[in-house]
Design a protein that fits this description.
Length: about 120
């Protein structure tokens, strides 16, 4: 006798878990191919294959979002600004303890100059 909570249509986050397993890439490729041929997502195919009587198909395979690329030079500049902000946070914490705010102001000025330089470059492009 099956309880209502055991019915596949009643699966929710509160009464189910995500079950994962590590498999060789060759096996994963075979399973992915089988799922694609069946027009199912990997999860739906595995549920149906492991326990066909209780499997709940949630829908067709969802297409992946296209991968977007970003300008590497821009990413570098953003990372550089992030590094400066991290340094500022460290100095602000140290200044709060030591009572010196000159180091924090110096770092803020460096960040401002760096961002101004970025804006000038973008305006020139």
């Amino acid at each position: 006798m099956r309880l209502a909570a055991d019915h596949p249509a009643a699966l929710t986050k509160s009464n189910s878990i995500v079950y994962s397993a590590r498999v060789p890439k060759t096996i994963a490729a075979v399973w992915d191919g089988e799922a694609a041929r069946a027009g199912m997502s990997r999860s739906d195919w595995l549920r149906q294959t492991v326990d066909p009587e209780r499997a709940r198909v949630t829908g067709a395979r969802q297409p992946r979002r296209p991968h977007r690329t970003a300008d590497p030079a821009l990413l570098f500049q953003i990372a550089k600004a992030g590094t400066l902000l991290n340094q500022l946070a460290h100095q602000a914490n140290a200044a709060a303890i030591a009572g010196s705010k000159a180091d924090v102001l110096h770092t803020l000025l460096q960040i401002e100059r760096h961002l101004d330089e970025l804006l000038r470059r973008e305006g020139a492009c």
